[in-house]
Every structure is written in C-alpha cells, then in structure tokens.
Write a structure and sequence with these properties.
membrane; Amino acid permease; cell membrane; transmembrane; Amino acid/polyamine transporter I; mainly alpha; transmembrane helix; 420 residues
Length: 420
C-alpha cells in the first residue's frame, strides 16, 4: 500500500444541490463536506464520456471495424471498466483528489506527476475544442449559414458553460443531470427504432476488415471513453466520497458501454454504412432524418447539442479542479488555486475555456482525436499498472487493464504507421 500525506480538507462548496438533485441522488452532504451525490457524480461521468465521441466518430469506427464496430466499443469499454476500478481504488487508498497526478506523487515520482498533469490539461483543452466543434457542426447542419458558423456556435457553447461552471458545483451538477437525462432519452429512442429493424447484413461495409479491425477501432476512438477519470478530480466534492466513487465508476462506464453498443448496432439499420463513413461529424443527424424526417433531424441535433454541451461542462468542471489541486502543491502557478465567491477555481475554468476557444476557431481537429486516444490509453495503462504494482484493488482487473491499454496503444501506433 502507498504511504500518503495527511488529508487536505475538502474544498468549501455550497451546502447542497437543488432539491431535485438531492432527491435523485438520495444522498445529502456528509461529513466529507461534499455537494455531489450519486446522481450528480454519475451525470458528470456520463456527460464527460458520451459527448462528442459517439456523434463525431461513429463513422471512423465503422470504417476501421466494419461489422465488428459493436465489438470495438465493447473492448474499449472493458478496458475502461478495469481502469475505473483501479482509479477508484487508488483514489480511496490515497483519500485525495487528483487522479494519476496524485497517484504518481504518492509514489514519489514528482517530475512524472507534474508532466502527467500538464499533458492531461492539454488533452482536456483539445477534447473541449473537439466537443465544441462537433456542437457547432450539428447546429450549422440544421441552420445552414456561412462556413465559420460551426466555430462560432462552438465558441458560444464554451462561453455559456464556462459561465455556469463559475457559479459553482451545485449549478454545474444540476445542469449536467438535466442534460444527461435528456440526451439519453433521445439516444434510447433512436436505438430502439433501429434495433427493431435489425438485420445483420446491413452492418457490412465494402472491403470488410477482419476481427483485428475491432481492436483498431477500439483504440482509434478510445477518446469516447475518456471522461470517467474526471470523477477522481471531483473526489473532494463528493458526499460520502469513499463509498460513492466505488459505486459511481462502474455505473458511469456501464452506461456508456450500453449506449455505444446500442447506437453502433441501431444506426446502420437506418442509414447505409457508406454514408455514415463519408458524412462524418453529422452522421447521426442523417439517421434521425431517415427515421422521422425533419423532426428526427431536429431531435438528433438536440441530442448532439446536449451531449457535446454536457461533455464541455463536465470536462471544464473537473479539469479546472485538477489544475487547482496541482497549483495547491506549487506545480502550477499559484493563481490556478484561487477560487471565486462560489468556490469555483475560476482561473482554471477561464484558462481552459480560452485555450479551447482558440482551438475551436482553428477547427479541423478530427486528426487529433486519434492522438488524444493514444494519450488517454497511455495514461490509463499507467493507472492500471500502478494499481497492480501496489496491490490496490483487484489485481486481475489491474493486469487486464494494463495489458489491454498498452497493447491497444502499440497496435494503434503500428496501424497509423501502416505496418499492420
């Protein structure tokens, strides 16, 4: 087991969430002082995962995995489940927020911890930009307009959601629950409509890949599972945190696995796979239009807007708290530890949001999705290895997650190099 320093008191935050949030969670603030109950934490995790990924990358996975697309999401989900178990176990063992940064610090790898925090913060800035660009792309697809409209709408989304984050944990979590419930309802309807007409032949693509394509597909879009680790940054915000983080990790990841597999099987029943591959970022909108015409197009666009919006919200919320944690230990400028009157780490929110705005304006971030997947596979592989080495949590899960994450990284790198 690791030997850790004395626990830092949980950040002062509002006493409770709005009543409807407390009712959903079934938990109030506890002696840990946290404001996030089960519903709020689940929504933050699901919102961080089911964001731009399923809307902008489904065609990419189909192109790589063909009829095995559902298996790509299953493989990635199993690696994510193992990692979530290890991350929860390591967080509880250290009883501190901070994710891999904290784990490496507790092991005495200060330089590696500092580097991991910087890499993750850059990765989160990129993912926020990807979500924002996808948000704008779906809305521009409906409303039309000039070529700069996707970027403009994405920037507007970042500004609005950064403002909500500046209001503190209660408002961020309350908005997240509403968004997540709404988008899951729409995606569930799309999934059911496609699955009732299920025909395995419609999953086929031209020049179908073998089963190896499922592994390449899983690695290529592993970014779709990025987001559950944000919960380790929110640990100090949680009510009954040691118990809650163990419960919410598998629940959050399991929700994403179910949704991704259902959509991967259902959407090709509504739209030809060739169109899903070619239409890229707005492929699901075409599925909605094929199902219900204009109302279907509008519903899926609404789901895409809610989904990417919740991912921006959750990622800003949690990554700003990572920056605060690192700054409190003088590994980032002290200004990142400052909080406003609502106890939000506002410098982190504004800095990450501003960086994402710049990247959104630049656009063309699709090629960075694969790079981000590699980054997160490496990070998650390291988390699993640390858990295995320290004997924290289930060693089988840790070993599976370590091998799965690092092997996927190697295979993806070989695939990008056109070696395999």
């Amino acid at each position: 087991m690791v030997h850790h320093s004395a626990q830092r008191p949980a950040s002062a935050i509002p006493d409770k969430l709005p009543n409807f949030v407390s009712a959903l969670s079934g938990e109030g603030a506890s002696s840990s002082g946290g404001a996030l109950g089960l519903a709020g934490a689940w929504a933050m995790g699901v919102g961080g995962m089911i964001g731009g990924g399923i809307f902008s990358t489904l065609g990419v996975v189909i192109g790589a995995a063909g009829q095995w697309t559902w298996a790509s999401f299953l493989i990635g989900g199993l690696i994510a489940l193992a990692t979530g178990h290890c991350m929860a176990a390591l967080t509880v063992d250290g009883d501190r927020s901070g994710g891999i940064y904290r784990f490496l610090r507790l092991q005495g790898y200060d330089k590696s911890a500092h580097l991991s925090a910087l890499v993750l913060l850059l990765g989160y800035t990129l993912t926020i930009a990807v979500y924002a660009f996808t948000f704008g792309s779906y809305l521009a697809n409906v409303f039309g307009g000039p070529a700069w409209m996707p970027q403009a709408m994405g920037v507007a989304a970042i500004i609005v959601l950064a403002g909500i984050n500046l209001r503190g944990a209660s408002d961020a979590a309350g908005v997240e629950i509403a968004i997540v419930v709404g988008k899951l309802t729409i995606l569930a309807g799309l999934g059911i409509a496609g699955l009732v007409h299920f025909n395995a032949a419609r999953l086929a693509v031209e020049n179908p890949p073998g089963w190896f394509g499922a592994i390449i597909g899983a690695a290529s879009v592993f970014m779709a599972y990025e987001g559950f680790e944000l919960l380790s940054y929110d640990y100090d915000e949680m009510a009954d945190r040691k118990r809650l983080i163990r419960r919410v990790m598998p629940l959050t990841i399991g929700t994403a696995i179910f949704v991704y597999i259902a959509i991967a099987l259902a959407v090709p029943m509504l739209v030809d796979t060739s169109r899903l591959i070619s239409d890229g970022e707005v492929a699901l909108a075409e599925a909605g239009q094929a199902l219900l015409g204009t109302p279907g197009l509008l519903l899926i666009t609404a789901a895409a807007a809610m989904s990417t919006g919740s991912a921006i919200n959750a990622t800003l919320f949690s990554s700003a708290r990572l920056a605060r944690e690192v700054a409190s230990e003088k590994k980032l400028p002290a200004v990142f530890a400052h909080e406003n009157a609502q106890h939000s780490p506002y410098i982190g929110v504004l800095t990450l949001g501003s960086g994402a705005i710049v990247l959104t304006i630049l656009g063309g971030l699709a090629s960075l999705v694969t790079g981000a997947s590699i980054v997160f596979l490496l990070v998650f592989g390291t988390v699993n290895f640390l858990a295995w080495r320290e004997g924290v949590g289930n060693r089988f899960y840790a070993a599976f997650g370590t091998v799965g994450a690092f092997l996927s990284t190697i295979l993806l790198a070989l695939h990008l190099s056109k070696i395999v």
